[in-house]
Amino acid sequence: MALGKPLLKLCVFVAVLVVVIGGSSGAHDYQEALSKAILFFEGQRSGFLPEDQRLKWRGNSGLSDGWNYNFDLTGGYYDAGDNVKFGFPMAFTTTMLSWSVIEFGDNMPPNELRNALVAIRWSTDYLLKTVSQPNRIFVQVGDPIADHNCWERPEDMDTSRSVYAIDAPNPASDVAGETAAALAASSMAFRSSDPGYSETLLRSAVKAFEFADSYRGAYSDNANVKDGVCPFYCDFDGYQDELLWGAAWLRRATQDENFLNYIQSNGKTLGAEDNINEFGWDNKHAGLNVLVSKEVLEGNVYSLDSYKASAESFLCTLIPETSSSHIEYTPGGLIYRPGGSNLQHATSIAFLELVYANYLSRTSQSINCGNVYVSAQTLRERAKRQVDYILGDNPLGLSYMVGYGNNYPQRIHHRGSSLPNIKDHPQKIACKEGSIYFNSTNPNPNVLVGAIVGGPGEDDVYMDDRADYIKSEPTTYINAPFVGVLAYFANNNNPN
């Protein structure tokens, strides 16, 4: 949801919109979609690319990141179609990729599980750097205002690579808490394949959480970083949810009673029951409640029952047949929430539905939604509708995953994808020289395979318009939960 700054409004033929009228062919190849959803992350890489880089149109970038602190901050991901490394959404992306592997890794073919772990490690190697200095967390690299005023390849970028850091006792509970969650979750993802790395991740997760909890407050309130992180990834919904989220993941990863006590004793004071119908890079409440509910459903910790009640209250709102239903759907059946990058809601909510369905199935339980009981099968069916809509079962017959199916967005809001790549055009393309490509009606020359765009509006309409970043820009946190969702359906085409 990094807000790209349009240079000129692009005129797009209406014909582009209706490549095909009506639905898709029906059955989807979820295995293919899974492979492509993971591949997308290679297009978002910053740093020195390895020899086995599969998206060959990308090259090295950001190799001097951190120089003004005399510290190596290379690596990590660009969040969307720009060239900035925002720590808050990157950490959330990492948590969701790791949760995808934890819950659904057994559904992945061995090669795709390896690819998913590689995608996680590209981020965790960077996140480890951000918390490696005592009493400091690096939260961002790159000046977003300067970056968004340019349309240039990451390999060419000459805008300021400003480093934004927060030193104790200044607070950064949100970013540090999410980083703790990311490192704790990823420690579980790597536990069997690389136990040494897993231990490193867990130690750093504890350190990041201590920073988050000791110096409480929102990172975007800090004058030193506010102009860099806002309005793009301000903490709009408060830092309290990240403290609980980080503690919940550390409880899951360590089974330490201290983290259990933290979740129990701080639930009400940190607002665990607030805003339960939100889940994304800024608001973790619904995901927190689903995550913590696992121990309640398994009959281990009844003192966390309020989290389970909140999780089930949220899930009931997704079911139109229930008396508490209030989530908006488009006429074509897509979950819709006002704001940018709507498909982030569809992918993350579908993920939570599948995770909770797994918890219900393992314990032979269902959800009491007042006038109806909701089963694991119902949750899986609801999730599958979102998946199929995204892959092409929608009024436009358009796949919102680039490179999947025959009809997908050709003009996504993404610098590297829309500009000639460095192999075909080795000469530098300067900041404003990219405008001609931004304003072109031609399809992007480089296919960012697996990218899921922001998606259609509340009327199911999508214009294939590079300038309309709200609808046409992909983000890492749209894709990350979808990896787990696709892994489930790749092995369970029938959601029973």
UniProtKB/TrEMBL annotation:
It is an enzyme of class 3 (hydrolase). The gene is LOC101508047. It comes from the Eukaryota. It comes from Cicer arietinum. GO terms for molecular function: cellulase activity. Residues 30-486 form the Glycoside hydrolase family domain. Keywords: Carbohydrate metabolism, Cellulose degradation, Glycosidase, Hydrolase, Polysaccharide degradation, Signal. InterPro entries: 6-hairpin_glycosidase_sf, 6hp_glycosidase-like_sf, Glyco_hydro_9, Glyco_hydro_9_Asp/Glu_AS, Glyco_hydro_9_His_AS. Belongs to the glycosyl hydrolase 9 (cellulase E) family. This is Endoglucanase.
